[in-house]
Amino acid sequence: MGEERRVHLSRSAPEAYAALRSFSTTVGRLAAEAGIDARLREIVQIHASQLNGCAYCVRVHVDAAVKAGLDADVIAQIATWRESGVFDERERAALELTESFTFIHEDGIPDEVYDQAGGILSEGEYVALSWVLVAINAFNRVAIAGRYPVPPRTGGSVVVGTDAAPPAVTTPRTPHVHPGPGE
Hints:
Layout: H1 9-12, H2 14-34, H3 38-52, H4 55-67, H5 72-77, H6 89-102, H7 104-107, H8 111-120, H9 123-145
Helix pairs in contact: 2-9, 3-4, 3-6, 3-9, 6-8, 6-9
């Protein structure tokens, strides 16, 4: 990506971004109430971000996944989940659903994906995961449009703190915040 400065959507229209953050908080609450644990939320958010090419959100959600207890092997297997044996049936259904939501412009949610997910996930889980996917796809678009930077880490450690963006819909009260370039 180029180094030119882009409009920072969250600063340029803070009321719109506040609404997106509020939406994310609501989605996080719905997910928690439906029994969608942090592991599953982070797996689908990482995968959607990978599919969209959003390096910024991949980093945010890898950090959150590590904090939620996922190890490097599981995180590395997300991109190749179909060939991997580390995901259970529920996670595989959620990953398939992630791909359909991320590429919804191609085929919508195909009947076979809907039926498979519906046979594994409860209606509440399906609804909650669907909203998680709507939210992460929205945040991906904000970060990609603004070309949010992903510089090398210093010290090689995973950081989730005040300088990093909190994960979207990871917990009911944690908004997804994208700092601008250089913050």
